[in-house]
Write a structure and sequence with these properties.
- The chain has about 475 residues and is an all-alpha fold.
- Helices cover about 70% and strands about 0% of the residues.
- It has helices at about 10-35, 45-55, 75-80, 95-120, 120-135, 135-140, 150-170, 175-190, 200-210, 215-245, 255-260, 270-275, 280-295, 300-310, 320-330, 340-345, 355-380, 385-400, 415-425, 430-435, 440-455; strands at about 65, 70.
- The protein has a two-stranded antiparallel ribbon.
- The longest helix has 30 residues, at about 215-245.
- It is globular and about 65 Å long.
- The termini are far apart.
Length: about 475
């Protein structure tokens, strides 16, 4: 593969090539900000994030309960820094979105840097253009008060450190300083969004599989990384134990997810959660219901698992719903349960702006993840490829057992990003296309079939 260029003129050309997608990304996000955001309503989880941010801006503790939950502190803190003085919940919030745009640009820059280090300038530029023009990334950074953009940025930072650690281990070095930084970076990511707890698991699995590294070195790196990771989470856990009676590594959504879609048939997991008098009791109730889901009604749980996976791999729903369906079509998908809402939003009404946007966004996401699969398959023994693979596998398992939205797959993008660029640059080169191994082609084809079926063929999740 192409490596970073050595001559000054080539290096200058490479910098220009890598700056272009960042400029384009900024322009596209600013257009979305000023065109779409004034019309977009704040709904769903965004309400909770804004409540938490406003409470923090007013001086409430990081661990205070808003909308019935303890939220991860770092994203709410970011939002609080960008709030204006308008108390309306659906105002433009330009400061919040500008901060999110900066975070998104940071994700793109880090991803390009990783891709260039691993696979060369062409792959890095392809990575940048793919992320810069992906509509979901644009809308989440510029129009939605949601934690995904910030979580992707912190995950990209963590992966930068992970790559440095793995490189040192493979070269025979101890990598203890890199391991400490990696643990802290992973902790920061977890304190941004609960779902990022899956990334440290993937990193540990990849660490175990690193070749050319002594077992002793890997064991020491694991110990140091784990210690620094727990140290990063300790202050928040300590405070939640003191204020809520339960030590939480991050917010409570991970526990809510256990009960939300696993309650007995005919009962609302959300209602069971809210009915408990404290966070400690809610956690206990969630764990109890989650156990019952496997031992009391396993057939229903298996049915739900299929529907959750269908949702995870299905069409784009969340961004089109909030950014286009509401302002342009005056349409809000209705549902009394999470699955009935998803069924209502599976296909927006024909002939509407939101339906056109949904089809376009889904096609582009389909392409993004298929070329990512191709890139991972090409470099399947690369340590970062293993992180991407393990992260995807763990997310699929967790979603099958708990609760699902298609936007959760966005958290995989930082780990997949360098391989998106590799896949695109390989397809654009006749020589590299000719050298593709059958295994890589088959892997991409299987992913294309699975995603294609879920996104464009299968019916929406069925009621119980």
């Amino acid at each position: 593969m192409e490596r970073a260029d050595a001559t000054p003129s080539a290096e200058r050309d490479a910098r220009i090539a890598l700056a272009a997608p960042l400029v384009a990304a900024l322009v596209l996000r600013l257009i979305a900000l000023f065109w779409l955001t004034p019309q977009a309503a704040v709904l769903g989880d965004a309400v909770g994030y804004l409540m938490k941010a406003r409470a923090m801006a007013a001086g409430d503790a990081l661990t205070s309960v808003t909308d019935g939950q303890v939220r991860p502190p770092l994203y709410a803190k970011l939002v609080s820094l960008g709030l204006d003085d308008d108390p309306a919940p659906d105002d433009m919030l330009p400061g919040v979105f500008l901060l999110q745009i900066l975070a998104d640009l940071g994700t793109i820059a880090i991803s390009m840097s990783l891709a260039r280090r691993r696979f060369g300038t062409r792959a890095a530029a392809a990575t940048g253009w793919a992320l810069a023009t992906w509509p979901i990334a644009i809308l989440f950074s510029s129009t939605l008060v949601m934690a995904e953009t910030a979580a992707c940025f912190t995950a990209a930072l963590a992966l930068w450190s992970v790559d440095h650690l793995f490189t040192q281990l493979r070269s025979g070095k101890a990598g203890l300083k890199a391991a400490a930084l990696t643990g802290v970076a992973l902790g920061i990511s977890v304190l941004t969004k609960e779902l990022m707890l899956l990334l440290p698991m993937a990193v540990v699995c990849a660490l175990i599989k690193i070749g050319k590294a002594p077992i002793e070195a890997k064991a020491k790196a694991f110990a140091v990384m784990s210690a620094s990771f727990m140290a990063a989470l300790l202050p928040f856990s300590w405070m939640t134990a003191d204020t809520q009676g339960k030590a939480l590594p991050t917010g409570t959504y991970g526990y809510l997810a256990l009960i939300y879609d696993n309650a007995p048939k005919g009962k609302s997991g959300q209602d069971l959660w809210v009915a408990q008098p404290s966070i400690e009791k809610r956690v206990e109730m969630a764990q109890s219901v989650f156990a019952d889901a496997f031992f009391e009604y396993p057939a229903l749980t298996a049915h739900r698992a299929v529907q959750r996976l269908k949702t995870l791999f299905g069409p784009e729903i969340y961004a089109p719903a909030l950014a286009f369906a509401i302002p342009f079509d005056a349409y809000v998908p209705q549902g009394t349960t999470p699955r009935s809402f998803l069924a209502a939003a599976w296909e927006f009404p024909s002939g509407t702006t939101s339906r056109f946007a949904q089809i376009l966004f889904t096609v582009l996401s389909f392409v993004l993840f298929v070329v990512a699969a191709l890139g991972v398959a090409i470099k399947r023994f690369d340590p970062l490829a293993r992180v991407a693979w393990y992260h995807t596998a763990i997310l699929v398992l967790v979603v099958a057992l708990t609760v699902s939205m298609e936007r959760y797959r966005m958290t995989l993008v930082p780990a997949l990003a360098p391989f998106i660029g590799l896949g695109i640059s390989t397809l654009l080169s006749a020589r590299e296309r000719a050298e593709l191994k059958p295994r890589a082609i088959v892997t991409a084809a299987v992913v294309a079939v699975l995603l294609g079926l879920a996104m464009f063929v299968l019916d929406p999740p069925t009621p119980e």
